[in-house]
Amino acid sequence: MFELETGMLFRRLGDTKQWTFPFLAKLTLATFAQLQVGSNGYTSQVDAVPARYFDDVTAGLKLHLLDQRPIAPAVSLSGAIGLPVAGPHRATSRRTTPISSPT
Predict the structure, then answer these.
(1) Could you give the number of structural domains in the chain?
(2) In this structure, is residue 99 part of a structural domain?
(3) Closest residue by Cα to residue 5 from 35, 19, 25
(4) Chain segment 39-92, per-residue pLDDT in tens
(5) CB atoms within 10 A of CB 31
(6) How far is CA 10 from CA 22, 35, 42, 88, in A?
(7) How many CB atoms lie within 10 A of CB 84?
(8) Which DSSP helix (H) or strand (E) runs through 92?
(9) How far is the C-alpha of 22 from the C-alpha of 85, rounded, in Å?
(10) Do residues 17 and 47 touch, judged by C-beta distance below 8 A?
(11) Per the domain annotation, does 89 fall within a domain?
(12) pTM to 2 decimal places
């Protein structure tokens, strides 16, 4: 079975407005295993320096270990890896300070 969860987040910090559209795609491989791929998705920021980018992606596996019982919760184990997405936000959102050599 395939499932897709999506949403929209709006943030306002002073004069900065940001819209983010996260998603999580799930593909059930067996009754105990699910492949998951997700991201904070497309982000649009409006302020003095506007930015638009697609955020990094995560991919992983979720293993179902125990079913929910009347007095115990369901138990699952998840592992994921982050995959960087190249984009213009990398150059503008990270500030670097040059390292000077001692003279």
Answers:
(1) 1
(2) no
(3) 25
(4) 999 999 888 788 888 889 999 999 999 999 999 999 999 999 998 886 554 544
(5) 7
(6) 11, 28, 12, 21
(7) 9
(8) helix 88-93
(9) 15
(10) yes
(11) no
(12) 0.72
